[in-house]
Specification:
The structure holds three protein chains of three kinds.
Chain A (H helix, E strand, L loop, with lengths): L1 H4 L2 H18 L19 E3 L7 E3 L8 E6 L4 H16 L3 E7 L3 H11 L5 E5 L3 H6 L6 E5 L5 E6 L4 H15 L5 H4 L3
Chain B lengths: L1 H17 L13 H13 L16 H15 L4 H12 L14 H27 L7 H12 L3
Helix pairs in contact in B: 2-3
Chain C lengths: L1 H25 L4 H30 L6 H6 L6 H6 L5 H21 L6 H25 L24 H16 L1 H13 L4 H32 L10 H26 L3 H24 L12 H25 L14 H33 L7 H21 L14 H20 L5 H23 L6 H26 L1 E7 L4 E4 L2 E12 L3 E12 L2 E5 L2 E5 L5 E4 L1 E3 L4 E12 L4 E10 L1 H19 L2 H4 L1 H14 L1
Antiparallel strand pairs in C: 1-10, 2-3, 3-4, 4-5, 4-6, 6-7, 8-9, 9-10
Helix pairs in contact in C: 1-2, 1-6, 2-5, 2-6, 5-6, 5-7, 6-8, 6-12, 7-9, 8-9, 8-11, 9-10, 9-18, 10-11, 10-13, 11-12, 13-14, 14-16, 15-16, 16-17, 17-18
Classes of the chains: A alpha/beta, B mainly alpha, C alpha+beta.
Chain lengths: 187, 154, 644
């Protein structure tokens, strides 16, 4: 009995090492899983970037599968994912909605004019209030919503060809989005 | 090499963004008690973008936004628990430096409590064992040494 | 050329460490090899020192062809920051760690004639084995001497401005002396397990080294806390950050070890427990190194993350700690003895003290590792932070203080209950103080009153004990009392400053006046000043407190090399409280309006003062003649020889 008890420290130590090893092999240490996953997209009321008269609400996002992309002109990663968004916008019939996050409206409009506009609709979130509702902690972030407006997937960081192939394309197919064949094996 | 350099630079930037330049918000409150609640709350929440700082100690843009949200909610008269729930629903358990004592995170609290109980139990068990056991007879040399050690001491 | 010499010295030190460790562990009994171990230890220390000096040299002459120098220095840095930048990053700080390790080995070898030769040889062998591991780690995964040739940059990337401070000059070296110093009791414990013998003499020798290491660790942690307080710009002095916890865990284990060793020394009890604590204390140092250097936990203080390094340290941990704990499991049963003691005895009090310290340690360990375990199991992330730790540390700290308060009249073995009375009276007095305090300090909760009362009780009972006795005290006893009083002072500081501080964030234009507690703060405006490697906006504030007036000049600095903006708080330090002013952002350039943070932190200095007192107590106890005079040592070693 006493003999066995002397092994307790060793066993505890091995457990600690195991935890250390596991922690160490976890990926993406700086990414937060979204608290919004499998929950309905929050209600909101905002204006459109390209038409200041138009109010946008959650009703605009419901009814068909929607990809919500949070972006800003001050975010370099947003620039690097822009081409991929243009490709997705052109090659599928998904509704692509941009959230212009804490940005200057004029600069954002120029940006879209210069680099092309992949979005069906862009929402202005000048003070980041919608961002807080969405649990956004940096741009870019991308949410995939099903027809009922429920969040089925969230990506923190850029949407790149790998993310498209591994994460978005299969989910698009599940949601019944039509995908152009040229995007099917697009890497 | 470049990759590693990049990481170092990135980390350095993050570290200095999290610290050393914390912004000062000048805010108006209805009462001193309200201000105290606000300060206690922003101390209690973690900035989701930073390495390991609370909302009050960070000037990252997201920390400023969240401070503003907390301020708004405090002014609206929400309770501390409602404000905690507000942030938890949007950013997950990660933003709470105090894990909720419920559901999946209750064990975080239960294990140290168990350790406290275990400590007391070990103490009691040891004391009982020591009492039951007769003292080992010291040999002459040992007891002589013992008395000398005890004598030259406190 | 010089960096290559440093690199070469490090390789040679590694070779000598290998010889020391093989000779020390395999042939500890043979005089020829004992001599060899001594000379290789000295040689190893010399080469480690050379390697370290070579790196310092590269920094002082701005040799940016060395990658590590290029990443952590800049030609604009003042010379003293160039020197301290040597340990401003992962590679260099690890070289410092190695140099300090060899320094402790040198110290041991200089005093080896006080110990039985086989024991000293084994201890040096164990330490050499560990230093060999460290040197290999440095050489294979984090070599500070790597060159950037031919792409030598024209200037360095600069040292992180947070580190351009007096704190970086002193905090890491002291902390590392403490961390690494714990390797000495560890080596003593492993040697004792190898020899299968733990006696009073062993405990006494180990205690000296443990006290030294513990005192340095205490100082190092204290300096770190003080540095964070004045440098980080938010007035915090402890945040339960993983890296802070990594330094706190070995401290808790070492504190438990100091006490447990006292029992083993005086009464021959707790032998196997003492061995375990000695192993645990250094293992936790190593675990801390793993946490800080592998990036396994997110912390503001972490070094740049490199998986290869983390894996190496983990494997090293497994080998060293796993090996020694296996040895412990197999051998510790041999040293166990049963010694009887009553409930009112120092032994029992030490036991309670150890249980409290170990539970505290377990709480920190759990709080630090639980988020990883949780993420591994559920995939979700959680945070465990200050509110969690404080919830456990307030009652644990108060319980520990209560044990301390009762201690002075307690004897070894057993005590007449009649002797306790003075302590109880003092205790009642303290309770009275508590009630009064509770009334006076309005927003203070009961826990603050309780903490302050118990701490005051500790001070009273120790002072009563020191002045009430007729016979002379040993230095060890005075050292112990000092440390206990220091602990109480620290508790008072923590309790008061964390509940009674005043903090105001205000908008101020020049000539504005603001009330801060009893003080009146006047803002005179902001002007531009230039430092050696930064430009700063410097605010001027005049603080009037009754009759006395002083001015504070907080700064907002922009560093030229990296463009980093830093807040440099203006602090007026006082024994009763600090006035702390930090500049926020300019709010209105036309009016000269600024956002300003004003703090008044009562008794904040007591936290560090108490800790320094603790460290001083630890050092003072080492000076005890009984630990130094050869007479006792010879007797003890003769005794040790006789008892086998």
């Amino acid at each position: 009995m006493t003999r066995l008890r002397l092994f307790v420290p060793l066993i505890l130590f091995l457990v600690i090492c195991a935890v250390g090893y596991v922690g160490f092999s976890l990926n993406d240490r700086h990414q937060l899983p979204s608290a919004l996953l499998d929950k309905p997209f929050p209600e909101f009321d905002a204006v459109s970037l390209l038409n200041a008269e138009r109010r946008v609400t959650k009703a605009d996002l419901v009814g068909r599968p929607t990809l919500v992309n949070v972006w800003a002109t001050w975010c370099p990663t947003c620039k690097s994912e822009h081409d991929e968004l243009l490709r997705i916008s052109a090659g599928t019939d998904i509704q692509l909605v941009g959230v212009n996050y804490k940005d200057d409206t004029n600069q954002a409009q120029n940006w879209l004019a210069q680099f092309g506009n992949p979005y069906d609709l862009v929402i202005v979130d000048a003070d980041g209030a919608l961002g807080v509702e969405l649990g956004v902690y940096g741009a870019p972030e991308t949410f995939l919503l099903d027809r009922s407006g429920r969040v089925v997937f969230k990506r923190v960081g850029d949407v790149n060809p790998r993310i498209w192939r591994d994460e978005l394309q299969p989910r698009f197919a599940q949601l019944g989005v039509n995908i152009d064949p040229s995007l099917m094996n697009g890497l | 090499m470049t990759m590693r350099l990049g990481l170092i630079v990135l980390l350095t930037c993050l570290a200095s963004a999290g610290h050393g330049a914390s912004t000062v918000d000048v805010l108006a409150f209805d009462s001193e008690q309200q201000e105290r609640r606000y300060k206690a709350l922003i101390d209690e929440f973690r900035c989701p973008k930073c390495l390991n700082t609370n909302l009050s100690g960070s000037d990252a843009p997201i920390a400023q936004d969240l401070r503003r949200s907390v301020y708004r909610l405090v002014r609206e008269g929400q309770t501390d628990q409602q404000i905690r729930d507000f942030l938890q629903q949007r950013y997950g358990d990660f933003v709470l430096y105090k894990p909720p004592f419920a559901g999946r995170t209750a064990f975080i609290w239960l294990i140290p409590i168990g350790l406290l109980v275990l400590g007391v139990a070990v103490l009691a068990a040891l004391q009982l064992r020591v009492r039951r056991q007769p003292e080992v007879a010291l040999n002459e040399q040992d007891s002589e040494r013992l008395s000398r050690l005890l004598a030259d001491d406190d | 050329m010089i960096p290559e010499l440093g690199h070469y010295s490090l390789v040679l030190a590694g070779c000598l460490a290998l010889v020391t460790c093989v000779a020390g562990l395999a042939a500890a009994g043979q005089p020829k090899f004992q001599q060899l171990v001594l000379s290789t230890t000295v040689g190893q220390c010399a080469f480690c020192a050379l390697a370290f000096i070579a790196l310092v040299w590269s920094f002082t002459v701005d040799d940016f062809s060395v990658a590590y120098v290029a990443n952590h220095s800049n030609s604009l840095l003042p010379w003293y920051y160039k020197v301290s930048a040597t340990w401003g990053g992962h590679e260099g700080s690890f070289l410092l760690w190695i140099a300090i390790m060899s320094g402790w080995m040198l110290a041991l070898s200089l005093r080896q004639q006080n110990y039985p030769a086989p024991l000293a040889t084994r201890v040096l062998g164990v330490m050499a084995l560990m230093n060999l591991g460290f040197i290999c780690f440095a050489l294979f995964t984090s070599n500070p001497f790597l060159r950037l040739i031919p792409m030598t940059p024209a200037d360095g990337a600069d040292l992180n401005p947070l580190l351009q401070d007096f704190g970086l000059i002193v905090h890491p070296p002291l902390l590392y002396v403490g961390y690494v110093g714990l390797a000495v009791p560890f080596a003593f414990a492993v040697a004792a397990l190898l020899e299968g013998r733990v006696d009073a003499a062993w405990a006494r020798w180990t205690k000296t080294w443990t006290n030294m290491a513990w005192a340095f660790l205490t100082l190092g942690i204290t300096l770190g806390s003080w540095w964070a307080y004045y440098e980080l710009g938010w007035g915090g002095w402890w945040f339960w950050d993983p890296v802070e916890n990594a330094s706190f865990m070995p401290w808790l284990a070492a504190t438990a070890l100091v006490h447990s060793l006292a029992v083993t020394d005086k009464r021959g009890a707790f032998k196997s427990w003492t061995l375990l604590l000695a192993i645990a204390a250094f293992s936790l140092s190593l675990l801390g190194a793993f946490i800080v250097r592998s990036g396994v936990l997110t912390s503001v203080h972490s070094f740049a993350v490199d998986p290869e390094r983390g894996l190496y340290i983990l494997l090293f941990l497994l080998a060293v700690v796993g090996g020694s704990l296996t040895l412990y499991a197999l051998r510790a049963g041999r040293v166990a003895v049963h010694v009887a003691y009553g409930l009112l005895s120092r032994e029992f009090f030490m036991l309670v003290n150890n249980v409290i310290l170990v539970v505290s340690l377990a709480v920190v360990l759990w709080g630090t590792l639980a988020p990883i375990a949780y993420e591994a199991v559920t995939g979700a992330k959680i945070s465990v932070g200050p509110p969690f730790f404080n919830a456990f540390y307030v009652p644990l700290g108060c319980a520990l203080a209560a044990v301390l308060a009762l201690l002075p009249p307690i004897n070894w073995k057993r005590t007449d209950s009649g002797r306790i009375r003075p302590a109880l009276i003092a205790g009642l007095g303290a309770l009275l103080v508590a009630v009064l305090l509770w009334f006076v300090l309005d927003p203070a909760s009961l826990t603050v009153a309780a903490a302050v009362a118990v701490a005051a009780w500790v001070v009273l009972s120790h002072v009563h004990d020191l002045f009430g006795r007729r016979n002379a005290f040993s230095r060890a006893y005075i050292g112990m009392s000092l440390a206990h009083v220091g602990f109480a002072v620290c508790i008072i500081g923590i309790a008061i400053t964390s509940t009674q501080s005043i903090e105001r964030d205000v908008r101020m234009v020049p000539q504005d006046q603001v009330e801060l507690g009893d003080m009146n703060v006047t803002f005179l405006g902001v002007s531009a000043v230039n430092g050696p490697n930064y430009r700063a906006q410097q605010g001027t504030f005049v603080v009037a407190n009754g009759d006395s007036t002083f001015s504070l000049r907080p700064e907002k600095r922009q560093y030229l090399a990296g463009g980093n903006v830093m807040t440099e708080a203006g602090i007026h330090a006082g024994l009763l409280g600090d006035t702390y002013i930090a500049l926020g952002e300019p709010l209105d350039a036309a009016q000269g309006a600024w956002a300003v943070r004003l703090h008044y932190k009562p008794l904040v200095r007591w936290i560090w003062l108490g800790a320094v007192l603790m460290a001083f107590g630890g050092m003072f106890a080492v000076l005890d003649r009984r630990y130094r005079t050869l007479r006792i040592r010879r007797q003890a070693s003769a005794m040790a020889a006789a008892s086998t």
